[in-house]
Here is the input.
Amino acid sequence: EEIEPWHAMNRDLGRRPHGNGTLSGMATEARIDRWSSTQLHPYIDVCLEAFGPERLMVGSDWPVCTLAGPYSTIMSVVLDYLQTLSASEQDSVFHAACREAYRLP
Here is the structure.
C-alpha cells in the first residue's frame, strides 16, 4: 500500500533507454489476503508512465500469483485495465514490446 519509493525507482528505470517493465507479481506484493483490482491500478499507472506501452510487457507470475487468488482473477486485473488503452498501445504491451525485448521474429 506504499507507492513510494517504488514510483521514483520505476521512473528512474524508465528513463534508461534499454530497460523494460513487466506487469506481474502485483497481487502477491499487495496484502495477499485482501487486495483489490482498484488497489493495483495506481501501480499499473506508474509502469505505463515510466516505460510507456512500447517497453511494458504483461507477465503472468504463475504459479506464484495463485497465492493471492485464482490465475484468471489475477490476470483479469491487468487485462481489464489495459482495455482502456488504444488498440496500438495494447498491441505493444501484449506483443510488440515482448518481441523487441526478447528479439523474437
User: Anything to note?
Assistant: Residues 8 and 44 are 14 Å apart (CA to CA). Strands lie at 21-23, 56-58.
